[in-house]
Specification:
Layout (H helix, E strand, L loop, with lengths): L11 H53 L10 E4 L5 E8 L9 E9 L4 E9 L8 E6 L2 E10 L2 E4 L8 E8 L4 E7 L3
Antiparallel strand pairs: 1-2, 2-3, 3-4, 4-5, 6-7, 6-8, 8-9
């Protein structure tokens, strides 16, 4: 005797199992591709920061290691809250003026971005404005520490040993500590 039932479709259970499997595959695939995308963004951002370090370090190294204390000491200017406003010193590594010049590093801030600036002034300039050059846009804040008594402390002037640590706080939460020995 033949069955009157014909195999014309899927049962409800079969359809539900197929939908559940498809949803599982889609969720797993989305998670996998999302993780790969985040990893790619992180690697790209890390690459940008790493490409920033060598040219920034070379400019700072040239400036800080050629500080000339015969014309004046390294000055660290702070606001009333103790936040660093600018660093100022005399150097022999001038880009725009021959001989010795006065250099200032400060952070220019506005609503959209922060820029670490380098300003170069003539040695006996009567004006307080010199040649301003943006160094990098990735620095959110910076701090200067001096080595005194076996530890690093917030600096206000150059110590006898001539060691200073410049800490650049980068966007995204990273820090770049740079240590320089200043010749006197």
């Amino acid at each position: 005797m033949k069955s009157t039932k014909q195999g014309r479709g899927f049962t409800l259970v079969e359809v539900l199992v197929a939908v559940a499997l498809a949803a599982f595959v889609i969720v797993v695939s989305y998670s996998f591709f999302n993780a790969i995308e985040k990893s790619g963004k992180f690697a790209s951002e890390n690459n940008k920061l790493q490409s920033l370090i060598p040219p920034l370090y070379l400019v700072l190294l040239k400036d800080f290691e050629s500080i000339n204390t015969h014309y004046g000491n390294l000055s660290i200017h702070r606001d009333l809250d103790g936040n660093l406003k600018r660093i100022e010193f005399y150097t022999e590594s001038c880009y725009y003026y021959p001989g010795i010049c006065r250099v200032r590093y400060y952070l220019f801030k506005n609503n959209r971005f922060h820029v670490l600036m380098r300003e170069e002034l003539r040695l006996n300039s009567v004006t307080e404005k010199g040649v301003e050059v943006p160094i990098t846009e990735r620095v959110v804040s910076f701090e200067v520490l001096t080595y005194s008594g076996g530890s690093w402390v917030k600096g206000s002037s150059l110590p006898r040993n001539g060691l200073i640590k410049l800490i650049l706080k980068l966007e995204g939460g990273g820090e770049l500590p740079l240590v320089f020995k200043v010749r006197s």
